[in-house]
Amino acid sequence: VTDKTKTRASERTLKIGLTVLSAIQRHKDNVSVWKQLAGTDWPETNWVFVGQNGKPLFPSNVNHRFVKFCRDKGLRLIRIHDMRHTAAVLGLEANVRLEAVSQALGHTRIDVTKSIYAPYVQILADEFTTALDDSLNESLLRMHVLAKDSTEEVA
């Protein structure tokens, strides 16, 4: 990425999980092989993702490869940017706090994240229902215990 970010919140550091780290390591291993084969023709850059020629990948080429990957795997075709939305929804469905998802996405306000993703995440609605049900059951149990204690005192 060579362009400036949209907002200051967009400039952030995110941890990389072991799955992503492993994929990047495999890519680095491939790049090392390409670099050896190219010898002195290999351009030295600071790019992580380069083609077999060592030069930065063109966005259109990345998109073409992504489309081919989706088709080869029988996956529904989405835009690369849509993977950001998929990651947000998967995070929320895995009970990642809304604040953490919002921060990872670089949203300046949590209500932006909530308005975009909450309608697609059934678990958020279910969480309310479950919590309310648990609270009602706890209250009913307390009321039952108190009523039982008061009738025992009378007897």
SSE inventory with pairings:
Layout: H1 18-38, H2 59-73, H3 82-93, H4 98-105, H5 110-117, H6 122-154
Helix pairs in contact: 3-4, 4-5
Rg, alpha carbons? 26 Å
Largest sheet: none
Structural category: mainly alpha
Distance between the termini: 78 Å
Shape: elongated
- Count of DSSP H/I helices: 6
Q: How many β strands by DSSP?
A: 0
- Given as residue ranges, the uncertain stretches (5+ residues, pLDDT < 50) are none
Mean pLDDT: 87
One letter per element, helices H and strands E, the order comes to: HHHHHH
Helix content: 55-70%
Proportion in β-strands: under 5%
Structure overview:
- It is a single chain.
- The protein is mostly helical.
- It contains 6 helices and no strands.
- It has helices spanning 18-38, 59-73, 82-93, 98-105, 110-117, 122-154.
- The longest helix has 33 residues, at 122-154.
- It starts with 17 loop residues before the first helix and ends with a helix.
Concise account of the structure shown:
With 155 residues, the chain is an all-alpha fold. The protein is built from 6 helices and no strands.
